[in-house]
Structure formats: C-alpha cells, structure tokens
Amino acid sequence: MASNPNTALYQNLSLCVYIGNTTTIENDTLFDYCSQFGTVVTHSFNKEKFCDFHIIEFADLKSLESFLKTNDHKINAIKLDIKFYKNILTNNDALNIERKFFVGPILHKNDITQIMLFYKKQDSTVYYQLSKQNEQEYLLLQFANRQTVSMILEQQKIPILNEHRKCHIYKPTHPKQFVNKIISMKNKHNQIHIHGLTNNITDIMLIDYFHKRVPVIACHILLNNPKCAVMEFNDEKTVRKILETSNIYLQGINLVLSKASRSLASLLSSSTDDSDDENIKTTVISQPILSSLQTQNLAPVPTTQVMSQDIIQQLLLAMFNPIQPVNRIEPEYISPPEINESGWMSPPRTIVSDYPTIEPVPVRLPSHPRATTMSISMDPEYRPETSDVDIKPFNKVPSNNILQFVEQFDNELDQIKNEYLSKFSKDRTTIEREINQLINEERQTLNRLDRYLNDRRKRVEKRHNKKRRHSSPSSSD
C-alpha cells in the first residue's frame, strides 16, 4: 500500500508503533515491510546516534490492528521488537533495548573476537550485531538479562584491545527519551495551551515542571507565536486535572493554562495573533483613589492588567520596601485602598526606594518657660544639638524570596523523593534475591532430609525383614 515518507511530524500518536532491533535495517526496507499491513504515514526523523528503534505511524486503526495481530515480525532473519508506542509511556514493559549496549569503535576484525571473548565471561549467551554509527562501526551486544547490562555499565567493564587501545561503551537511546520530541498534529483533545512564555523558558523546562506531576507526551513551542506552547498528555482526565489550576509560576513568570480549542496543525498554518487560544482571561486592577494632597505630589499610576500572583508580589514588595519621604519630614497621609467586588486594589506601581533614609533630628527644648514648639522651630538663631544615635542600615529584602524558597523547597523535596525511590528499588531487588536464595537453600535442605528419612526407613524395613526370616526357622523347630 502507499506510504508517504516526507511527512514532517506525527499526526496521531494513537496510531504509532515502536519497532525495535532496527539498527541494521535500512529505512526503505522497513517502510516496505510495514506497508504490507496497511497504509503507512512515514514520519522521517533524524536518527540519533546509538539508536536501535524506529517509530512508524499508520493511517488508520485497521492498518494498526493488522500489524499488531501478527505475532512474529522478521526482516532479514532479524526478529523485530513490536510495542504499541503510547503504552511505553505508562507501562514498564520490558524492551529488548534495555538488554543492549554499543561498544567500539571497531577498527579490525580481531577487535570483534577480543570483545566477544571478554563479555562471554559475563554472559555466555551474549551475541552481537555490527552497526554503523557516523561512518564508524560498533558492536551492538545483547545479553540475557538487564542485571548484567546494569552491572557492566556501573562497573565500566571494558576490554583492552591490541596496542593497548581501550574501546568505549554507550547506552542506546531509550524510546522514553525520544517521546518528548513528537506531538500530535490533529488530536487536540489531550492538549493544553500555555500562554505568557518568555525567551528564558524552554520546552525542556515545561516538560520537567509537568512531568513531576503527571506523565507528559510532548511539548511544542509555536514558531509563529513563541509566547504560546502546546503540551500533550495521555488522556482527557489528565488534562482536566492540570486545568484545575488556571495558572502556574515558572522562572518568575505567571503562565496561563487553557484547554486547546484548535489543533496544532491549524495553529502552525495560521500566522495571525488574534486566535481564540490567545484570548487570555486577566484580572483588571484599577488605579487606587488617592487623597488630594497625595495627588499633587505623586504621578498618576496607569491602569494595568496583572494576575493574582502579581498582586501578591506587589504586596510583598510594599511590605518589605516601605516608601520613604524625600523632601519632607512630616509623613503624608495615604488613604487605604478601597475594596471592590474582586478584592483589594493594586498598590502604587511606582515605588521610590533608591533614596537614603532621613534620620529624625532630636530637638532640645529651651529653658525659657514661654517658648513653644513653633517658636523654637522658627527661631533662626536656634541651633539644635544632635546626639549620636546607633542607626542600623536597612537591608532590602527581595520581593520574590518567598516564592523562590517555595520553588526551591519543592525541587529539593522531589529530589529526595526520587533518591528514596531509587534506593528503595535497589534494596528491594537485593532483598528479593536474598529471599529467593534462602528459599532455595531451605528447599535443598528439605530434599536432603527427605532422602535421609527414606533411606533410614528402607534400612529399618530391611533389618526387620531379616529378623523375621531368621525367626521363622527357629519357630518351626
């Protein structure tokens, strides 16, 4: 059936198939084989170094089911490892690629013999395939289990070849590392849009942020609108869970989340900026009402559109960095912000914090009993005496310290959790191995005890039969 090898992106991940053991198979050969089962929409991608799999997308569900129903797929006597691609994300299915690694480069035929002799001491069933990577040949070794591969990679067991040349081992690319590079073009039901991005926020940051909470399929930042990104998840239930929070805080920026109303294909084909996905709901904060005295001394504050997180940030900034008067000693009275239906109004956005603080001047009253405070302050001949006062400098506290602390605490907590889970899995494997060893030893002990009892019973029966035979002639006499 027909195939299209020039499509740039995957249209529907639900129709994609993971095909392993393809390092020695040409692309055209694999495409021709898959086309026998139905219409193939071939999405070419730059095959990474040390990659041993392909991802093929079929045009419809019938072709996909026809391909998956076949139990044994072979090309050039190579058995293919077939998996439904989306299941790799949520399930921990055992893949053949987890029992493999690359070793090389191979410069002489004698290198293959030395490498195989070295690794057959670790696993006698190991076999290899010769794979070409960037004009250099490597051996792709496959072992019987994943434990042997993990032990070799951790301990860096590498053979030394002729001329004291040491080869290198490379872990193959895992399909879960490739999954975040593709995204559905037409399926919008499992996607959300993230608005308000900056140049400092990348797709990797977004994937890391959401992957701590739910499994992520893919992420794509629009080229025609770099302030918007498309994120894809497993199902609509996950999307609803994510959209329970209308905005997130990342890299000091408020990002707004919304349900995808258009597919990625239509977004890429559209170059206008007035799409439905860019109509972001914002909270309008009016200018606070100031007193007449304050209106004469302060510049008007423009009306701004900010999010609730900006309100918190401004309140923290006003609390930690109070405004100091510049030209007057007497403080000006500022009326408190009025309360409307949406909450507290925004504090003044123009904050003067670069001026030094004014130290209050202590005034000594004169001895004249009729002198008043006004006469003292207005007397040109009066010279007030100052006293040394220990005034400590005011250290300005950054307004985003609390938010950074919360984000850092969350990251450290996730790191501790991951380390604990990793250690728990290793300890669990060790405990299971020791328990199995104890069970085998107990079983062997029981078998030996059973044989001993059987032998003893046979000897007793034999002795008893002898006594009975000897006793029978004597009784006849």
Can you describe what's shown?
The chain is built from 13 helices and 19 strands. The chain has 477 residues and is α+β, with helices and mostly antiparallel strands. The chain folds into four domains: 13-90, 2-Layer Sandwich (Alpha-Beta Plaits); 99-177, 2-Layer Sandwich (Alpha-Beta Plaits), CATH 3.30.70.330; 183-281, 2-Layer Sandwich (Alpha-Beta Plaits); 282-352 and 398-415, no CATH class. A five-stranded antiparallel β-sheet has the order 12-13-11-15-14. It has a four-stranded antiparallel β-sheet with strand order 2-3-1-6. A hairpin with a 2-residue loop joins strand 4 (74-75) and strand 5 (78-79). The radius of gyration is 38 Å and the shape is extended.
TL;DR of this structure?
With 477 residues, the protein is of the alpha+beta class.
Descriptive tags:
477 residues, alpha+beta, Alpha-Beta Plaits, 4 domains, 5-stranded antiparallel β-sheet, 4-stranded antiparallel β-sheet, disordered N terminus, coiled coil
Largest sheet: 5 strands, antiparallel
Query: Mean pLDDT, rounded to whole units?
Result: 71
Q: At CATH's second level, what is the architecture of the largest domain? A: 2-Layer Sandwich
Total helices: the number is 13
Q: What is the total number of structural domains?
A: 4
- The CATH top-level class label of the largest domain: Alpha Beta
Terminal CA distance: 101 Å
Helix/strand structural class: alpha+beta
CATH topology name of the largest domain: Alpha-Beta Plaits
Number of strands: 19
Instruction: Give the helix proportion (percent range).
Output: 25-40%
Cα shape: extended
Low-confidence stretches: 1-8, 271-308, 322-356, 365-382
Task: Please give the order of strands in the largest beta sheet.
Answer: 12-13-11-15-14
> What is the beta-strand fraction?
15-25%
| Radius of gyration over all CA atoms, rounded | 38 Å
Write down the oligomeric state: single chain
CATH superfamily of the largest domain: RRM (RNA recognition motif) domain
